[in-house]
Amino acid sequence: MLGEDDYGLEWQAIHNWLGRLAAHSPFTYRHSLGVASLALNLARIYGMDQGECQAIYAGALLHDVGKITITNALLMKKGPLTREEWLVIKNHPRAGVELLTASGISPGILEFVAYHHERWDGGGYNGLKGPDIPLGARIIALADAFEAMTSQRPYQQIRTLPNALAEVENNAGTQFDPGLVPVFFTMIHKLMKTASSLPLIRP
Ligand SMILES: [Fe+2]
User: Fold this and answer.
1) How high is the mean pLDDT of the chain?
2) Average of pLDDT values for 143-156?
3) Boundaries of each HD-GYP domain copy (predicted)?
């Protein structure tokens, strides 16, 4: 269990890593902020306690830190990847855990980084399946996929919100934890309600 001082040190380390990620790949940094916001909202609505929410938020911020070890040419590549390139991409959760281990990041957070590319049906990077995948990693995986679908990427077309939500629904029980998907929909509706109650900012 971390004491209050340890939390302070850990957040300092998290900020340092985010700074390094922002310097290497601003695009991946912005993606990580988006994923962290979605994952934190999802964890809260799912009813997780404060400590679990903090760990999920931290894990989501750091989930792609391993991409620091990948060149921008490969991160932004549009065409199909060679087998070697695919193996480099696939190694980024492991690379992230290796980088973070030495900086005092707690094992509970490292676990989320390690398993953020698992699928509910066992078809992910490490083949973990269903409830064997840590819940925080399942939450981050769903937030990660949704953020990727709804933001512009060099190698895929941006989706409209209804289209992205349909994709989440269609993949409940295969890619995503089917228990999380309805909670995800509740969260998106809540966020949209909040947004629609805010005054529009006009240029
Ligand atoms: Fe990733």
Assistant:
1) 92
2) 85
3) 6-200
Q: Give backbone dihedrals phi and psi of 176, rounded to 5 degrees, phi first.
A: -110, 150
Instruction: Classify domain 4-183 by CATH number.
Output: 1.10.3210.10
CA of 94 to the centre of ligand 1 (A): 10
Region 120-142 average pLDDT: 98
Q: What percent of the chain has pLDDT over 70?
A: 93
CA of 64 to the centre of ligand 1 (A): 5
Neighbours of ion ligand 1 (CB under 5 A): 64
How many whole angstroms separate alpha carbon 91 and alpha carbon 118?
A: 13
Q: Which residues are catalytic?
A: 67
> What is the structure's pLDDT at 78?
84
Please give the biggest Cα pair distance in the chain: 49
Kindly give the distance from the C-alpha atom of residue 113 to the centroid of ligand 1, in angstroms, as a whole number.
Answer: 8
Q: How far is the CA of 201 from the centre of ligand 1 (A)?
A: 33
